[in-house]
Write a structure and sequence with these properties.
The protein is α/β, with parallel strands linked by helices. The chain has 2 domains: 172 residues, Rossmann fold (3-Layer(aba) Sandwich), CATH 3.40.50; 70 residues, no CATH class. The chain is built from 11 helices and 10 strands. Strands 6-7-8-3-9-10 form a 6-stranded mixed beta sheet, with helices on both faces. It has a 4-stranded antiparallel beta sheet with strand order 2-1-4-5, covered by helices on one side. It is globular and about 55 Å long. One of its GO terms (molecular function) is ATP binding.
Length: 268
């Protein structure tokens, strides 16, 4: 596998009983790009995410991350390997503050033992300071200063989406999986999300693999797009190339309006 390929999915399939949810899907995600999966509901996009996250096991095919098989890894090791994920349905500790939720995201970098923790040694203190510094950097990046000490349960939905993104960034991932980051957001919040995804790519150097329905967001931030339908690949390429594919125009919900939106954004 080429050094510029961070993640490679080769002919992956997954079957649930008699349902073939993903069928012979292959793609590569290059380092430093935003790669987006699009398609109608039920196309298999989130199932692909669940395969990469090790929530599901593929029935066939392979997934390779940094040149090593990912399917041999247990789910609890995925974050430590450098893969972080957000979810379409927000998964946060509602009765903890934003700061505490973000500090939890640092657990993959926890190296001290129980006795060091009990006596709060110099090594532990240094690790605590480093964790707090990293969290504060993410808070500044995503403009969460005003919400730092607020309980998550009291936050608007749009802010919660940003907090979940922030927690994922606190793990310092090499690959960030974003599952419909604009879901439930208004136009202004979606614009902010596009801005932050671009910052994540350009300023932090993090590779992004995204599932998204909002074609305006897809066109603004994506380097390459893979269109799926009924568990299979329809087309792949730049946003402009994918929007011109007849299969995408036919399969995507809203067809003409959604794909023409992708065409307009791709032309800018």
């Amino acid at each position: 596998m080429s050094d510029d390929i961070l993640l490679s999915a080769g002919n992956i399939s997954v079957r649930f009983g008699g349902v073939l949810a993903v069928n012979d899907v292959s793609f590569d995600v290059r380092r430093g790009e935003v790669f987006t999966l699009i398609g109608p509901n039920g196309a298999g996009k989130t199932t692909v995410f669940n395969l990469i996250s090790r929530i599901y096991n593929p029935t066939a095919g392979s997934i390779v991350f940094e040149g090593k098989p990912l399917t041999t890894q247990p789910p609890h090791r995925i974050a430590a390997l450098g893969i972080a994920r957000t979810f379409q349905n927000i998964e946060l500790f509602e009765h903890a503050s934003v700061l505490h939720n973000l500090l939890i995201g640092r657990h993959t970098h926890h190296r001290s033992g129980i006795f060091s923790e009990m006596f709060f040694t110099g090594k532990v203190r240094a690790a605590e300071i480093a964790a707090r510094e990293k969290v504060e950097q993410v808070i500044d990046l995503l403009d969460l200063q005003h919400h730092r000490d607020t309980m998550v349960a009291g936050l608007p939905y749009g802010v919660r989406k940003v907090v979940e993104l922030a927690r994922a960034l606190c793990t310092e991932p090499k690959l960030l999986l974003l599952d419909e980051p604009s879901s439930g957001l208004n136009v202004e919040e979606t614009g902010d999300m596009a801005f932050w995804i671009q910052d994540i790519k350009h300023e932090l150097g993090i590779t992004v693999l995204m599932v998204e329905h909002d074609m305006t967001l897809v066109s603004k931030v994506s380097d390459r797009v893979l269109a799926m339908n009924r568990g299979e690949v329809l087309a792949s390429g730049t946003p402009r190339e994918v929007q011109a594919h007849p299969g995408v125009i036919e399969a995507y919900p809203g067809t003409a309006e959604d794909v023409s939106g992708l065409r307009r954004e791709a032309a800018r």
